[in-house]
Amino acid sequence: MNLNVGDPAPQFEGVDEDGNSVKLSDFAGKKLVLYFYPKDNTPGCTAQACNLRDNYNSLLEQGYAVLGVSTDSSASHKKFIEKQNLPFSLLADTEKEVHNLFGTWGEKSMYGKKYMGTLRTTFVIDENGVISEIIQKVKTKDHTAQITA
User: Which fold has domain 13-147?
Assistant: First the structure.
């Protein structure tokens, strides 16, 4: 991980589930929960997204916006949002550009096999675009509590 708390968040631009451009500057003046997750419609990622969905109003009241990022396509994100009734956008980072800016694409291992994938990580970015928190050990079923702790 090459970013630390106190660093300015990298300026990024990507495309959401509707094909709209989304960039960090869109969230100026708001706190942003920027969470990177491996795959739409998988058990852990669904649990994480639904936990954020279920606590979304509380996050809004505390001044947070929420944006998820994975390497899935906009079409996949759209289906995931509709199926899970998610109230926030998901960024389609199919070229891994945003992942690379934040250092969330890396080597993983499962059952002894090594492969490249998304390192599940959440960045909390303050109103001034500065990283105020980095959560690397994400509890998918209770993620909001980690953010607002």
Answer: Glutaredoxin (3.40.30)
